[in-house]
User: What shape does this take?
Amino acid sequence: MTAFATHRSDGVMLDQVAAIYGTPCYVYSQAALVERYQAFERALAGADARICFAVKANGNLGVLGVLADLGSGFDIVSVGELERVITAGGKPHKVVFSGVGKRRDELERALEVGVGCFNVESESELERLDRLAIDRGVRAPVSIRVNPDVDARTHPYIATGLRENKFGVDIERAEALYRRAATLNGIMITGVDCHIGSQLTELSPFADATERVIALIDRLAIEGIAIQHLDIGGGLGVCYEDEAPPSIADYVEVVRSAVADRDLKLVFEPGRVIAANAGVLLTHVDTLKPAATTDARSFAVVDAAINDLIRPALYDAWHAIDRVGQAGSNAVRASWDVVGPICETGDCLGTDRDLTLAEGDLLAVHSAGAYGAAMASNYNSRPRAPEIMLADGAMFEVRARESIADLMRGEKRLPPPDLGRFDRGC
Ligand code: LLP
Assistant: This one.
């Protein structure tokens, strides 16, 4: 069904994973991650380029480690992500640091380890970074994230390239900021950066953005400001249901051909397209409430919920859901709403799914390798699910299931009250 299914070559069946680690449980395929990363490498053959995996899509150390071993760089947005990259074996000089609000301590740590580039999003950030770099006696490598004002035609929550979005510097104002940056002793201008949104399924917004950024680079060159790299951000979409996003090869080609014979290094920040279809969320059917018993809809209550995978609730996102293994003789075919046990009507992983189900069945929620575990929470005091990586026919627990003690770690009651202060009732 999805890319993940083609990697049953991992040799381990999903039902074995569920039997050993329980559900809900995330399962990743190393082979699928490698294949996606290498598709970028192939498309970029012969070009001066860096692939910086967007850690926000999946920051698990196992996932980052697989990519670090392949030589990947990383796009980070916090010091937490930076420490994950370093712990996983990523190289700081291959890191680009994005984000609209970087704290002083985060900038300091990034200067200390020597990240490859700061994607600066405002004048105030530029001045702060300059002062911190001068204090350390270094020059901070900088790209300015420009907002090219193109419509990514994606979900409004994940569109970032329009003038009204909070991200980046208006492309019209960017020139003045580059002129300012060129005067600062703590700043070394290296690139121009943009990121217009996520889950893009057409090439034209990327082509428009690249064209506008290159026009800026050409204008800067006339002013004597030399740009060495163009960072086009992330955003290439994947197939969740019936979308037909461009291939990695076609996407890369749009950028490469726009750059033409300019001497520019290319930086890409893909997240979803590398990880989404390299992961599934496994869940067991706990309780069936067929329409006959509810007089309304047929509900399959499963043990995964929106705390594990929030995308359907937050973005109205569609994830394929299928049963793992054969249907039992007592299974009921219906159009099921697959819902979790959380006390919210929006706790739904998928509506109207034509499935033949019995209580106890194992389901796989597909395309869950990006923005799945990374966005999980403990809502309803639910321990976060374990993450398992399938690699070369073996399973590796790359994150253990949280325990009840983990849930309360760091919390405390107040000291015992002064008994006289409260009427304690009976
Ligand atoms: N670079 C920057 C600066 C970004 O903000 C993002 C994603 C990426 C790269 C990676 O984009 P990707 O290749 O994954 O599309 N939680 C949402 C997606 C939010 C994306 C935010 N920025 C979701 O589940 O759909």
In short: The mean pLDDT is 93. Residues 204-222 form the longest helix (19 residues). The longest strand covers residues 279-289. The CA atoms of residues 331 and 358 lie 4 Å apart.
